[in-house]
Amino acid sequence: GASRDTGSPKSGGGVARTATGVAAAVVTVVLAVVVAGQVEDGADTQAQARPADVERAKADAASRSDSRPTPNGGAAQQLTYEQKMDRKYPLDEKAKGSGAFDTVGGHEAAPGRGEVLRYRVDVEKGLPLDGELFATAVHRTLNDDRSWGHGGTRTFERVSSGHADFVITLATPGTTGVWCAKSGLDTTQDNVSCDSAATDRVMINAYRWAQGARTYGDKMHAYRQMLINHEVGHRLGHDHETCGKEGALAPVMMQQTKFLTTDGITCKPNAWPYP
């Protein structure tokens, strides 16, 4: 806390000075005892609370700009889900990670009707991207009626433990390449994603998640939805498709990260199986 300023008492006779001196001495002793007790208790409290304090500090650091005044006098606004999904994030196109994964915690119930498919979300350790945002995007995308559960045919439940039908995995290009190669797929040429069908992992290339593709430009939200729908589409048994009519919406199973034109016919970007 702030240091306390104590002024000198006015002179008013020997007795008064003596009494004042005694009183001051008593106050000093009491304060010393109280302060000593506070320091000792504070040290114990600090030692006991340190892990929580560290987590709180992380949270404070992450949210510090959300409510504090900005240099121009305004208040910074917390980004919405849509704003976060519209943004690009820095990531090297040749990034390689540890190859180890963290599971995004929590549970999100299947909101729809039909067959329930359970999936888990893993994010490569050390990846400088928001795993919670990724998990939210996966769940919202797959349970949109324009996605693979269209018309109540199926619905998707996110789990973090127990049985999962497949694992949607956000990983660096290097690790994506390793897992896709397990299924005989080469993602390194075009830095793309894959459904590693010989394993339980649907691999989302973190570089594409962060930076998008030329075919979608700045439409990052739509591109990310397409990535999820395309790769999960493979897991559900759908093969690649091509553009069939000039100016039509591209099939979601078209390789839209690479191109929007096949045999001279150009389609428009499309993120959904049932747009």
UniProtKB/TrEMBL annotation:
Classification via InterPro entries: DUF3152
Residue spans of biased composition, Basic and acidic residues class: 52-67
Domain DUF3152: 95-275
Stretches the record annotates as Disordered: 44-82
SUPFAM superfamilies per UniProt: Metalloproteases ('zincins'), catalytic domain
One Pfam family of this chain: DUF3152
Protein name: DUF3152 domain-containing protein
